[in-house]
Amino acid sequence: MALLALVAPPVLALTGLVVTSFLTLPPLGGAALDPGQRALTVEADDGRVFATRGAFRGQLLTAPDLPPHLAQAIIAIEDRRFYSHWGVDLRGLFRAAWRNAVGGGVREGGSTITQQYVRLTSLTQEKTLRRKVQEAFLALRVESEMSKDQILLGYLNTAYFGAGAYGVDAAARRYFGKPAKALTLPEAAMLAGLVRAPSQLAPTRNFGGAKERADVVLQTMVETGAITAEAADKARAQTITLRTPPETPPGTNYFLDMVAGDAKRLADTQGDVTVRTTLNLDLQSLAEGVVARRLDAEGTKKKAGQAALVALSKDGAILALVGGRDYEDSQFNRATQAKRQAGSLFKLFVYLTAYQKGYTPESVLVDRPVQIGDWEPQNSNNRFRGAVPLSTAFALSINTIAAQLADEVGVPAVIETARSLGVTSELPNVPSLALGSAEVTLLEMTRAYAGVLANRMPLEAYGVHAIRGGAPQPLYVHPDPKAGAALPGDTRAMMLDSLQAVVDGGTGKAARVSGIPVGGKTGTTQEYRDAWFVGVTPDLVVGIWVGNDDNSAMNRVSGGDMPAAIFRDFVQRAAAQMAKGRAKRPSAARAEPAPAAPVAASPAAELRGVPEVIDTGTLAFRAGWYGFSASRARAARSPDSSPVIFAAARSPADPVPRHNQAAPRFAAGSTETTSPP
User: How many C-beta atoms lie closer than 10 Å to residue 114's C-beta?
Assistant: First the structure.
């Protein structure tokens, strides 16, 4: 009686568990993976696969396409008595329990392939006794409704093989670049060995471990009589080649996050897709290294914790993108998501608007105390230069001049110019907007500067060339740019010349690159919270931001400091790589106006380039790099329409170079002024 009292409670509890498990059985197939979930295979601009994202589904394997050695490998390692039991293998359960007890831990599972199949398709992955009981009931049910071959195919089409691959066909394509029906014996053995620990043994992450497990599978196949020992030895000797990179380069994840969203927007379809992007892996690696080295060398001393970089081709293709110092530490993309005050970087739109309304780089304004309503813009050095031409004011980033210009042309007109160049962030109609009080992203500002270089308003910055699915016809191909608005030739020439003056002798001198013409603009916000530089070369537009995520002040880091140095370091090395043909050079023909007609007396006399002042009465040509015929630009406002030399009135206040001086020179002690509060 005492024994009955002792045994009855656990027996009743177990009976209750079995009955409850049976009564609450879920429907078959209720936990299957969402078929709409898709995977991305991401290629660089040269076709190299460098990343994958999402859940790969592949094609459903059918009986005629199932290689015999693949079925034999799975059965040998996962369920030797698959064709003998009725869904639950009691012998296998006892064997697994014994080995686990002897081994001092869980070394072998007792679930059959049928049980694993129903767990994958109908149950959760929780490890409870109730789930195991339901698993057994559903396995018996499946065995009564499906044939063994159907169960095996269902399992192979559902099992997870690591690296985002669901189903054996997806795994075959993911790891070996071939469909499952084309798998060799050693490849089949490797895949069969993954299902026990797919994340740990995925060959893209742990090839050695996957190979060792494949050898175990081959030995098991010998023990079950599926293959001979000679066949196993031959399979072990064969080389297995992976068709995908071992791991996604960590620094590319910022770009991948952006592209994944673009791919969904551009081709929102079911099924796995391959995305050919604009990313140049060589330039991307270079950009990551340049940013990291500069932050490591100077970040602590200058209290600068983060940086971002965007490199665009002349047609807007994103060639490199660094969204922060370390993606694993922070996935926030400071190139596309962070909105920070632009500071003097915003003056591009002020001067463009002024040039379109009749001002020229030679126009003179007075650097003096200014009050516009209740706002009094200040220069950072609290000094004033008096009468200065706009070329000098832009190069030295004088705040009072920019504020006066914006007031003269109207802040709404400045906003309209910014919008026309692709700035989408909120731009308040306030006087301080002239000095960059609005918050913008690095990508949209870089895009705007690229629009000036390419003479396209707006220029689209894009990261996707094409998207392909299973069908031969692409799902998406980036269209050729449509003809749109462009800057007047004269305006563009003046703006590009002003940008080059910033680097030649203004706040951007640190961005100079030997042998490469460079233009650009610096930006620094109050208390040195943000530092920017956007630079242009004949082939690239590169934007850099440096700052801190908590918006804390840096140690006097201006746009002409770390950002300009990062630009210089990047462009110096990028130029060499582009010369080797590793980076794509967009055609300049789309963005350049047609050359002026040759002069009849001397067809070779026409020169293309940027005008240069030799003295106050002579204007000559410097070797051009912007692809604009300066003779056409200046002829309309010069009394002398000769393509070689123009007369140009200059203010005595303009610090022009003399005679043999090759480029404008500015006051050596100048510093960039900062934006208002």
Answer: 29
Residue type, 140: L
Which DSSP letter does residue 346 get?
Answer: G
- What's the pLDDT score for residue 644? 25
- The pLDDT of residue 1: 61
**Closest listed residue to residue 462, CA positions, set 250, 313, 280, 254:** 313
Residue 528, both tokens: 């040195």
C-alpha distances (whole Å) from 525 to each of 117, 344, 376, 398, 454 are 60, 8, 16, 14, 28
| Residue with tokens 């460079």, as numbered in its chain | 518
Q: How far is CA 260 from CA 267, 333, 447, 478, in A?
A: 11, 14, 20, 15
* Three-state secondary-structure class, residue 433: helix
Q: Which of 321, 319, 255 is nearest to 545 (CA)?
A: 321
**318 CB-side CA count, 13 A:** 30
Cis peptide before 67 (omega within 30 of 0): no
The residue written with tokens 């994944």 in the block is 260
Q: Distance (Å, rounded) from C-alpha 535 to C-alpha 513?
A: 11
Report pLDDT digits (tens) over 214-253. Answer: 999 999 999 999 999 999 999 999 999 988 766 788 899 9
For residues 442, 448, 453, 455, the Cα torsion angle rounded to the nearest 10 degrees is: 160
Q: CA 634, CA 493: separation in Å to the nearest integer?
A: 9
Angle at 42 between CA 37 and CA 48, to 5 degrees: 150
Secondary element (H or E) of residue 50? strand 49-54
Which residues are paired to 451 by β-bridges?
Answer: none
What does the buried/exposed string (b/e) look like for 581-615 if buried means 16 or more CB atoms within 10 Å of the residue's CB? eebbeeeeeebbeeebeeeeeeeeebbbbbbbbbe
Cβ pair 558, 565 in contact under 8 A:
no
Name the residue among 511, 499, 459, 522 with its Cα closest to residue 318.
459
Cα(388)–Cα(153) distance, integer angstroms: 80
- Measure the CA–CA gap between 505 and 197, rounded to whole angstroms: 62
Token pair of 495, please? Answer: 């703006």
DSSP E strands, 236-357: 273-277, 306-313, 318-322, 340-341
d(CA 156, CA 78): 12
Residue 450: band (very low, low, confident or very high) from pLDDT cuts 50, 70, 90 = very high
Write down the number of H helices and E strands in the chain: 22, 16
Q: What are the C-alpha distances in Å from 125 to residues 117, 119, 120, 390?
A: 12, 7, 8, 69
CA distance 513 to 87: 72
CA dihedral sign of residues 480, 483, 487, 493:
positive
Helices 168-176, 148-158: crossing angle, 10 deg rounding: 40
C-alpha–C-alpha distance, residues 209 and 206, integer Å: 5
The tokens describing 253, both together, are: 């994840």
Residue 17, both tokens: 């568990």
